[in-house]
Design brief:
Elements (H helix, E strand, L loop, with lengths): L1 H29 L2 E8 L2 E5 L4 E6 L6 E2 L4 E5 L2 H32 L8 H33 L2 E3 L4 E4 L8 E2 L4 E7 L4 E7 L11 E6 L6 E8 L8 E3 L5 E3 L11 E8 L1 H7 L8 E6 L4
Antiparallel strand pairs: 1-10, 1-16, 2-9, 3-5, 3-8, 4-7, 5-6, 7-9, 10-15, 11-12, 11-16, 12-15, 13-14
Helix pairs in contact: 2-3
Length: 289
C-alpha cells in the first residue's frame, strides 16, 4: 500500500513538473514579451556649413547642452571681409544705377533730333544691366552675412554631445562632421517581437520595460508596428531569376517584427539621465483583464 501511494506521489510530481515546464515553454515561445529590445534615440550629426579654423570650442565630450547654446566658433576674419566687400560693391552699383537712371530719364526728355533711338535704347539696356547687377549684389551680401552667422554653431536641440574628436586650432571644412548630438527628448524603445506574438500587439497597448541592469521598470505604450521586413530566403540572382534558398521543414525560425514603444512621459523625465541609446532591455505587453 505504501509502495502504491509513493508511486502515485511520484507520478503526480512528475506530471506537475512536466505541466510546469510545458507552460513555461509555451509562455517563453508564445507569450507577449521579448528580450530583444533596444533603447534608441534620434541623433543629430553636427556639421559645419563653412570652412575655417576652429577658434573656440565651448563643449566637452558627453556634455549636456541646451538648444541654442553656442558650441563652437570658426574664425570670422575672412567672412567679415566678404561682408564688407559685398557692401562696398552694393554701394558702387547703387551710385552707378542712380547715374544711369538720371541719364536715361534726361535722354527720354530730349527730342528725336537731339538723340537717336539707338542711343536711347543703349541707355535703357545699360540701366537694366545695372538693375540685374544690383540684384546680384544684394544676393551676394545676404549670402556673405549668412556665412558670417554660420561661423557660430549652436545646439539644434537639448541633448548630449558624443564622439567629439575635434580640437581648437583644427581646420574645419564645409560639410565636415564634427560630433553627434543625442536628442534628450527623443528616446524610445525599439522591440523585436516574434511573428508568433503578433496577436498580442496593437497600437496603444501598455507595456512594462525592464532594462538589462534590472534595477527598475518603466511604463510604455506601443506607438508603431513595422509593416515590412527583408525576405532573407529569396533574392534576385543571375539573369533576373529568383534565388530561393533551401530550407529545412523541421526547423522554422520565427521572423522578428520591429515595434516602436514610447516611454511614459512622466517616467521619461525622471530617468533621462540614465538612458543610453543602444543598450538592451526586456519588454512585456500588459495583457488586458
Amino acid at each position: 500500500m505504501k509502495t502504491t501511494a509513493k508511486g502515485l506521489v511520484i507520478i503526480v510530481i512528475c506530471f506537475s513538473a512536466i505541466l510546469c515546464i510545458y507552460k513555461l515553454w509555451n509562455y517563453y515561445t508564445f507569450g507577449p514579451w521579448t528580450r530583444d529590445a533596444k533603447i534608441r534615440a534620434e541623433v543629430i550629426q553636427a556639421t559645419s556649413e563653412v570652412s575655417g579654423r576652429l577658434e573656440t570650442l565651448r563643449i566637452k565630450d558627453n556634455q549636456f547642452v541646451k538648444k541654442g547654446d553656442v558650441l563652437l566658433t570658426i574664425d570670422k576674419s575672412d567672412y567679415t571681409i566678404n561682408v564688407e566687400r559685398a557692401l562696398s560693391q552694393l554701394e558702387i552699383l547703387k551710385t552707378q544705377k542712380a547715374q544711369a537712371q538720371s541719364q536715361y530719364e534726361r535722354r527720354m526728355r530730349l527730342s528725336n533730333i537731339a538723340i537717336t533711338k539707338e542711343d536711347l535704347e543703349t541707355s535703357r539696356i545699360k540701366l537694366e544691366e545695372l538693375n540685374g547687377q544690383l540684384r546680384k549684389a544684394r544676393t551676394d551680401l545676404k549670402k556673405s552675412e549668412l556665412d558670417l552667422t554660420r561661423t557660430t554653431i549652436r545646439a539644434p536641440a537639448d541633448g548630449y554631445i558624443t564622439n567629439l574628436n575635434t580640437r581648437e586650432g583644427s581646420y574645419i571644412s564645409a560639410g565636415q562632421s564634427l560630433f553627434a548630438l543625442v536628442d534628450i527628448n527623443s528616446f524610445y524603445i525599439l522591440a523585436y517581437f516574434e511573428e508568433t506574438k503578433l496577436a498580442f500587439l496593437d497600437l496603444g497597448k501598455k507595456v512594462v520595460i525592464t532594462p538589462y541592469g534590472g534595477q527598475d521598470t518603466w511604463g510604455g505604450e506601443i506607438t508603431g508596428i513595422g509593416r515590412a521586413i527583408v525576405d532573407q530566403s529569396a533574392s534576385t540572382g543571375e539573369q533576373m531569376l529568383k534565388d530561393v534558398k533551401p530550407n529545412y521543414p523541421w526547423v522554422r525560425l520565427a521572423q522578428r517584427i520591429p515595434v516602436r514603444i514610447a516611454i511614459t512621459p512622466e517616467q521619461l523625465s525622471s530617468i533621462e539621465n540614465r538612458l543610453v541609446a543602444g543598450t538592451t532591455c526586456t519588454v512585456k505587453v500588459v495583457e488586458s483583464l
